[in-house]
Design goal:
This is Protein halfway. Keywords: Leucine-rich repeat, Repeat. This protein is an alpha/beta fold. It is built from eleven helices and 19 strands. Strands 1, 2, 3, 4, 5, 6, 7, 8 and 9 form a nine-stranded mixed β-sheet that branches. Strands 12-13-14-15-16-17 form a six-stranded mixed β-sheet, covered by helices on one side. A two-stranded antiparallel ribbon has the order 10-11. Strand 15, helix 7 and strand 16 form a beta-alpha-beta unit. The radius of gyration is 45 Å and the shape is elongated. The protein starts with a helix and ends in a 20-residue tail after the last helix.
Length: about 500
């Protein structure tokens, strides 16, 4: 019995010595999938303090990146490049998960996965939690799901050349990048994106983005990113090689032109030219209206808003290539500058509603009349519409030209009913509010009646038809009387009255 106890004691002491010797060299893992038992341990209270991300210096603003020549040997999918960096090559979802469980430690902050064929990349995995540089390049990712954890330390994210589309990059329901508060570099180049991820650049920190190779990102999305208050904090990497899709529309024609994004940086210059508009200090608003391809050059077209500025005359010295001007709700009385000022040369849309303009004669023969697509002069003080100013305009441009004149009370006379009313009815497709053009005395111009407005003093010519009718009647009666007398004379041998009272004439022998 004592011998057995001694053997047990010796065995226990040997086991204790073994543990004492080997435990310090056991490496602890942090992956939740590798240690599922951690889920059942008692968790300490969650800290409300924002954890400090590891300070990983990124060289030249690029994520940790390794060439294919440094891929692990055959049979090994991931390898540790240095104490904080892991490099994987040619993996699928299962092999990547398996390999990362082996090589990733709590000290790993850099990860580059080359040529990953993954249907769903779940960025919420715990294995990515401590990364400051994360790169998945030159592969094929079906879509990105999940969400980066709160206060993620990721400072550089590289998802270039993965055949990603906008739907795959940023699903409409999920928000994978909501908590990337430390992100300073995003490389999404060489994909097939069609939407600019504005949520990644609308922040109060400096961020560099690379969207080169995504030629079908709409130019208007780049404009929004550049027009924000923090646009100076956004830097476009590979700026000269970044292009966008320019949506060209003119009337029924639609096309897409690929242009370099440098054409979009015009707002600063536009603001400067906007301040030069006269009268001075009226604080008009100038914004890019659209881009237009003229020959081989892309021109930035401008929209100017000078409404509600208490103007008494049309503004002058508009920014170059102004195509739209809104001067509604002012006290303007004349449109003469449209004819005289060269800055109106490219104007296509003019809105002068709620002013004091009395006619449009000053626009006769101007380039604006020849080229305008929208002209609204409703609720002014027009007394007549000089249709000859717009002669043949609607015949040449068809339904793509709009002329708005509602809310005006003009002087109506017979000429209005004879000329203006038919003109309105003929061009009703181009004048959508033609029924709102009214006479000073009430009633719509389109409903004028000739009897109500066409009145003139009568003279003898007004009775000419009656005179002619009477002469015809007398002639008919005369012919009938002569015929009757002739018949009586032949049948009875005498002439009825008054023929028998008439003296004989030298020519009577012709009838005997």
């Amino acid at each position: 019995m004592k011998t057995r106890l001694c053997l047990v004691d010796v065995t226990l002491w040997c086991f204790v010595l073994y543990l004492t010797w080997h435990v310090p060299f056991i490496e602890m893992r942090v992956d939740d999938l590798e240690q599922p038992a951690l889920k059942y341990r008692e968790q300490p209270p969650a800290s409300t303090e924002k954890p400090e991300p590891p300070k990983q210096e990124l060289k030249h603003g690029k994520c940790f990146h390794m060439p294919r020549s440094r891929c692990p040997p055959e049979g090994v999918k991931c390898t540790r490049v240095d104490p904080v960096s892991v490099f994987c090559c040619d993996v699928d979802s299962f092999r990547l998960k398996e390999a990362l469980a082996i090589v990733m430690t709590q000290n790993t902050t850099n990860l580059h996965v080359l040529n990953a064929n993954i249907e769903e990349l779940d960025v919420s995995q715990a294995v990515f939690r401590r990364l400051s540089s994360m790169a998945f390049t030159d592969g094929n990712i079906g879509k990105i799901v999940g969400q980066f954890p709160k206060h993620s330390p990721i400072a550089c994210l590289n998802i270039s050349n993965n055949n990603l589309t906008s739907a795959k990059l940023q699903p409409p329901i999920q928000r994978p990048y909501a908590y990337l508060f430390n992100l300073t570099m995003l490389d999404a180049s060489a994909n097939n994106l069609t939407e600019f991820p504005l949520s990644l650049v609308h922040s109060n920190r400096k961020i560099s983005v690379d969207f080169s190779g995504n030629n079908y990102l709409p130019c208007k999305h780049f404009q929004k990113a550049m027009e924000t208050n923090n646009s100076s904090l956004v830097t476009f990497v590979n700026y000269e090689r970044t292009f966008c899709a320019l949506d060209l529309r003119f009337n029924w024609f639609k096309d897409v032109q690929i242009v370099q994004i440098d054409h979009l940086r015009v707002q600063k210059e536009l603001n400067a030219s906007c301040r030069n508009i006269k009268p001075a200090n009226i604080n008009c608003t100038c914004v890019p209206e659209r881009l237009e391809l003229l020959g081989d050059e892309v021109t930035n077209l401008v929209a100017v808003d000078c409404s509600q500025r208490h103007l008494k005359e049309m503004p002058t010295d508009l920014p170059p290539n102004t195509v739209k001007l809104n001067v509604s709700y002012n006290n303007i009385t004349s449109l003469q500058p449209v004819s005289d000022d060269p800055s109106y040369e490219h104007l296509r849309q003019l809105i002068v509603d709620y002013n004091d303009i009395v006619n449009i004669v000053e626009l006769e023969g101007t380039k604006f009349i020849d080229n305008f697509m929208y002209f609204s002069i409703s609720h002014n003080k027009l007394k007549t519409i000089h249709t000859y100013v717009l002669s043949n305009k609607f015949d040449m441009t068809g339904i793509y030209t709009t002329f708005s004149i509602g809310g005006n009370y003009i002087h109506c006379d017979c000429n209005t009913e004879k000329v203006l009313k038919p003109w309105l009815l003929e061009n009703f497709k181009n004048i959508p509010d033609y029924k709102s053009l009214e006479c000073e005395g009430g009633g719509a111009v389109a409903e004028l009646l000739e009897a109500d407005v066409c009145h003139s003093p009568r003279d003898w010519t007004d009775y000419i038809y009656y005179v002619i009718g009477l002469e015809v009647l007398v002639l008919v009666l005369l012919v009938a009387k002569v015929s009757y007398d002739y018949w009586v004379f032949k049948s009875a041998g005498y002439l009825p009255w008054p023929a028998n009272k008439m003296p004989r004439l030298p020519c009577d022998w012709l009838c005997e």
